[in-house]
Write a structure and sequence with these properties.
By secondary structure, the chain is of the alpha+beta class. 32% of the residues lie in helices and 16% in strands. It is globular. Keywords: Hydrolase.
């Protein structure tokens, strides 16, 4: 399968104006191809290039999860280890009795590294569960709920101190909640390695894989604008180029979604997983990443169902069944999507830059790939 074959299924939506442009990348049996359609801005005449740098948003999570497993292999931390040693600010947690109340009880156990990777630390988005004053306070404290904003957060120590003032919403390990766990994970990994998260990620994941365009700062010569959909359905600039918030190092390197990169770089990472770790990760670590860790009740819970859509969660990425066989990957809120179908030795990436992701474009991409595989 080639990228232009998949792009053919997406291009009509680009032509109709659903998104200004789209990039498709495919890695099939070790061969990578890229193709692009449309422009960098609505109604623009500057073609979107296949090597454009974009904001990866939540597609950062799998990369950070792989880094965590590298540090586990180094002996710097363990999956079942309480995070208290590295983040003592979050030791001895209290847990709400009810989401809409203030009464708390002691946490039954500490938060572990695996709790962070599986997003079961006990704090995250509250969705369709009624009022939750504690979550509202987390938003007011500026902990970063919403679209990624590289310069909207304080430094890691201050960020953790603010979180430490709040009780947990659930007992550690009990419930899946998007996505604050990964912000905590980034702090844990930086402290374990004794270096800023960006440096460690580059040294252990990005540089070995040749992901030269990926990082917490974007190359302005290749960066393209990102857009948000306005109340009237039209697109307004969310983040430009000359004044982009991704051009300077952030105070808080946010492991939830702070990275910028390219479709080709994402395919390099996907290829490493398809190759059983490619010498970077142990094959057992890849299996752990790509195996569902959730119970049926956790997958179906109100806080999880809107994000997982019937699928499950491994260590840092979503896993689900499909008509073409098992697949894993994840999406980014600024319009990026990556899936791998390991039985077909195939990974495919879709890149747009529209918030929220355009459902018709995502669906056309996935359907085109799976129809061809079936």
């Amino acid at each position: 399968m080639q990228a232009d074959e998949v792009l053919a299924g997406v291009a009509p939506h680009v032509d109709a104006g659903a998104v200004p442009g789209a990039i498709v990348g495919v890695r099939h049996h070790g061969v990578t191809s890229l193709a692009a359609a449309g422009a960098t801005e609505p109604g623009g005449d500057v073609p979107l290039r296949a090597d454009a740098v974009v904001r990866l948003s939540s597609n950062a999570k799998p990369l950070v999860a792989a880094l965590a497993l590298c540090l586990v292999a180094d002996g710097l931390l363990a999956l079942d280890e309480p995070i208290d040693r590295l983040v003592p600010e979050l030791a001895d947690r209290r847990v709400l009795v009810r989401l809409d109340g203030t009464e708390t009880v002691p946490a039954a156990r500490p938060i572990t590294v695996e709790d962070l990777l599986t997003m079961r630390m006990g704090f995250g988005f509250v969705v369709d569960e009624g009022p939750c004053p504690t979550f509202d306070r987390a938003v007011a404290l500026g902990l970063g709920f919403g679209p990624p904003d590289p310069h909207g957060l304080p430094g890691p120590d201050e960020w953790v101190a603010r979180l430490a003032d709040l009780p947990l919403l659930d007992q550690p390990g009990a419930a899946w909640r998007y996505e604050l766990s990964f912000a905590v994970l980034g702090v844990v990994l930086a402290r374990a390695a004794g270096r800023p998260l960006g440096e460690v990620l580059t040294a252990r994941i990005l540089a070995p894989l040749g992901m030269d365009a990926t990082g917490f700062c974007a190359d302005p010569s290749r960066l393209v604008p990102a857009y948000a959909r306005g109340d009237d359905g039209g697109l307004v600039v969310f983040d430009g180029v000359a004044d982009s918030r991704w051009l300077a190092p952030p105070a808080f390197p946010d492991a939830r979604g702070g990275l910028a990169g390219t479709a080709e770089d994402l395919l390099r990472f996907a290829g490493m997983l398809l190759e059983g770790g490619g010498g970077l990760l142990d094959p057992a670590a890849v299996t752990a990443m790509t195996s569902d860790r959730l119970t049926p009740a956790q997958r179906a819970a109100p806080g999880a169902a809107p994000f997982l859509d019937g699928g499950g969660w491994g260590l840092g990425l979503g896993v689900t069944a499909s008509a073409a066989g098992p697949r894993y990957g994840w999406a980014g809120g600024l319009g990026t999507l990556w899936y791998s179908w390991p039985e077909h030795d195939l990974a495919a990436v879709l890149v747009t830059q529209v918030l929220p992701p355009t459902g018709s474009v995502f669906a056309a991409f996935t359907r085109t790939v799976e129809d061809a595989l079936v």
